[in-house]
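debug: dumping io for the single-chain case to check the tokenizer round-trip. Nothing else runs in this session.
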Amino acid sequence: MSRADAGWASVGPELPFAAVRWLLPLLVFLCACEAREVVPLTEHEAWALADDQDPWPAHRPDPVECSGLSWSVEDTGGQESLEVDTQECNYLVVAQDSVAEVRAGDTLRFRLWHFDLFSFDSAEAHAAITVDGVPVFEELVPIPGDSEMLITEVPIDEDIAAGVPVVFHLHNHGSNVWNLIELSVYPPGTLEE
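debug: decoded output
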């Protein structure tokens, strides 16, 4: 079959070859761009007590009362979370190594839920997260207070390797329940507006 029989004569003999010349680099570029999805930064089951990694040791009460039964992985509305019952744990520091890399331009997203906060005295809860020693989330929450979902999105401007320490710090006065629901890495374009 000749080019004329294939219909190329009507568009000129060079067009298919010219198209390949500019399409090929475009296809190589598009294939090289990997599609990235939202991934967890940590695993709920991997948290371990880490008093030696406490970023805020001056906050530590005397005595610290925190039984092993006061924090665990729980189902919160169909999602796993790290649940902390502050009636049994007045101060908690847990840590683990991150399970995902974070690239410059990504966003770290944190979701922390607390039920109604009760105390006979006015007080303040402190919840914070560090990644590789850098505070990336910190909230001071007045007690008493209504239940609330704290959502924080932190843009990251430099790469962070997987395997760096992530520390969750929580202290609170009174009988309250907190759920750390999400610590995730959102690549550009994946956050819902």
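debug: round-trip ok. The longest helix spans residues 15-32.
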